[in-house]
Amino acid sequence: xxxxxxPELAANQSSPLAQRVDVRSATEFAxxxxxxxVNIPMEQVESRLSDFSTTLPVVLICQSGTRxxxxxxxxxxxxxxxxxxxxxxxxxxxxxxxxxxxxxSRWSLERQVRLIAGxxxxxxxxxxxxxxxxxxxxxxxxxxGLTFAxxxxxxxxxxxxxxxxxxxxxxxxxxxxxxxxxxxxxxxxASL
Length: 192
Fold this sequence. Notes:
Oxidized Rhodanese, domain 1; single chain; 8% strand; alpha/beta; 5-stranded parallel β-sheet; 2 domains; disordered C terminus
């Protein structure tokens, strides 16, 4: 596995010499990613091979480098021009380099779900031991919800957390110029 450091990748920021592919989930990507990176979640990599550049080498990115290394191993038979960002976006941020953040929260939805589910299980067990054994049902309910989410790929807690104000998309602070009537005509004919 070949690696590239954050400063090395940043040196090529103005004229990209490689395609940057972030293999984290869409919510992790939205919470903060390297400018110019394309999001191809790890579980979609094999079905989206045609989205990888055929002319540029590819730099694989994740939070710490672990998932990117797994994807590198998975794709090694297909292409040898892969690099893994050493330390991932965490190393990029630690180096003081800018991240593109699309949500108000810097925590991914997955991380928020894990925290809340873990706290519910912890409180269910603690209250079951201290107060009344029926509190253990709270832990069982969380386990049932996690099992459902794993089997169906639908996470009700994630959906609920996604609607919270801290997970709302950031508003555009740059004023958007009005579209001229000529541009509207071009847009209208392009959509036909």
